[in-house]
Design brief:
Largest sheet: 6 strands, mixed
Oligomer: single chain
Helix content: 25-40%
CATH architecture: Sandwich
Number of strands: 12
Structural class: alpha/beta
CATH superfamily: hypothetical protein (bacova_03559)
CATH class: Mainly Beta
Strand content: 25-35%
Length: 210
Amino acid sequence: MNMRHLNKFALLAFAVSLFFSCNDKPDTEFGNSRIYFSNTSAVLSLIDSATVTDLALRADTTMNFVGLYRSGIVDNYEKITIRVEIDSAYLANQIAAAQTATVSEMTDIMIRYKHANALGVYYCTVPATVIIPQGERKATAPVVLRKSLIALYNNAVFNYSKADFANTDIVKNRMLVIPLKITSVNPEFPILETQQRCFIEITKQITIVN
């Protein structure tokens, strides 16, 4: 091989190696980065026995059980700010539609929450933003419950009697639900659509003693 052809071959080999080195991900990077709730639903059990006066004086309670995650593995995890809101209007619309929908029109959400009621900001709050710190892949969204109001509401509207609980033919699907939604992410990572919402289900009986 003469010198001219050797130089051409060397330049071609260098160009190919440069192309692959610029386009390959580092060995430590894997998967796509998306933001999502760790679970699409969570169950909160409020089993209590108290007088109406006691319940009315019950202090607010902060629950730290709703996880937010970032998928994918990278060299350096930057700080991520996630906006979360209580989207009671969405669930209320789904519940309303479920009352008249045909079997073929029923979605999973409509089936599960047909006999539920959506709670709004009067009963609970979440911070406007939740931060996944730099270097981390997860965070927790604190949910503040106005426990006294929820307890009284549950007892008045969605309670079951002892006879109801003993009757296995009665489906225990009445519940109060706090519907959360991820609305935006900064920096702009994609939101995993199938886990963009999380429904906190309040399902248990609270017995009022008078």
